[in-house]
Amino acid sequence: MNIKFILIGLFFLINPNIEVFDILPDFIGLIFIMKGISHLAATDEKAGIARKHLMICTYINAAKTLTLLLQGVISESEMTWMLIFTLCFGTGEAVLMFLAFINLDRSLNYTGMIYSATNVYDRSSSFTGFTLAFIGLRTFMSILPEFVYLLDIDYGNVDTVLINWEFVTLLLYGLNVIVVLAMGIVWYINSRSYWKTVGAESDYLERIEEKYQKEVGTNIPLLTYRAFKTEALLLAIAAIFMICIRLDGIDILPDFVSAVLLGAAALRLKKLYPKHFKKALIASALFLIVSASEWWLWFEYCTSYYDTSTAAISFSETMQIFFYSSIEAYNNYIYLTVLDFVKVISALLAFGSFIPCINEIVRDHTGAIAEIREEVTIKKTKRIQKSLNIYTCIFAVIAVISLVFDPISVLVYFDLPIFIFITMILGIIFTVYVWIYTQKLTEAIENKYMY
């Protein structure tokens, strides 16, 4: 383990989050922590699970930084949107960090005991408990202003706010900075003390390194299996963010988060499949640029014609009035629909860029458990690989159908609103299928190597 990297990573978690603002981005710190525990994660199951949670949290947090670009178009009348982003990202990251540090604690306890490193397992629980308390407090303080705002609104009259919101906001932000920063400094000092103690256990660190070199090293099948398990998880989560769920016309599961996760999955292939890695990364980057632009422009378009805090009629009715009475609104709507189609094409390229790599993994790393008679093993392997190729074809078909429905549903939004619901259902079907598909591939790799 690299203790210096872990301490650098923990330092990035000290600062409080002001809504979605993060002065020291968490994802940078999480990258350092993952790098620091990488050899432990490769040789211990619990540490491996911790690393996966940290990895997902890293890419989610990196995607969150893109929302900082939205601050210029989020007015005081759009507090609901600020709450959605703060709540979804903030609580989601907190849950992932909780799971990561709990599993890391279990790993430190187990490895500390078997390697007789008393200082490692004896103090790990106190480090983890303090860490979970700090993360919980930081998350609570970051979402508190929005909750206070929503609880204060008189819903009988949406224009009525019972307290001076500007004063309360400054008060809560100030409290957040003082309390979280003070606790963060104390937490970091405590954490630094613990990890310095771990670093002093030279025998413990040497045995972890020996186990890593012995079990992993250049074991291509094992590296492929672990890489694909991570890639499968990232693909499944990326598919979730492709589900079209619109609130006031805006997709509340931003597609650019899916693009970031696909980029992360591509990076996982870098060492094993450099040729496929480059294509997948370029396709994911293109998808990220297009989807982020499309989401931002849709947000600006919808908030330009509809104010959620003052409108007396529904979003659909309001937009329909503008759509049919304003030539500018109509033209902009058509332009954005065209951009939606471009986004779908880039999404299909991004998801499709993984198919050649998957086909190569199927060919080289899937099969049946070895039988006494070799011809039986070969026959079963061919059958398994043939079924997996069929699954891949179905994956491509479902991806095309579910994604293409998105711009079509937008185009006929006012005449056939049922298409929005159909698009959402197709997105859910696609997500479920991606999960089933990747699990089948993982099982086939396990079958061949008996992991």
Fold and architecture overview:
- This protein has 451 residues and is mainly α.
- The chain is 78% helix and 1% strand.
- The chain is built from 16 helices and two strands.
- It has helices spanning 3-11, 26-36, 38-43, 45-65, 79-114, 118-152, 165-200, 202-215, 220-240, 255-267, 274-305, 315-325, 327-352, 355-365, 374-411, 418-449; strands at residues 246-247, 250-251.
- The protein has a two-stranded antiparallel sheet with strand order 1-2.
How is this fold's topology laid out?
Layout (H helix, E strand, L loop, with lengths): L2 H9 L14 H11 L1 H6 L1 H21 L13 H36 L3 H35 L12 H36 L1 H14 L4 H21 L5 E2 L2 E2 L3 H13 L6 H32 L9 H11 L1 H26 L2 H11 L8 H38 L6 H32 L2
Antiparallel strand pairs: 1-2
Helix content: over 70%
The string of secondary-structure elements, in order, is HHHHHHHHHEEHHHHHHH
Q: What is the count of DSSP helices, taking H or I runs of 4+ residues?
A: 16
CA gyration radius, whole angstroms: 25 Å
Give the beta-strand count: 2
How many strands, what sense, and barrel or not for the largest sheet? 2 strands, antiparallel
Widest beta sheet: strand line-up: 1-2
Mean pLDDT figure: 79
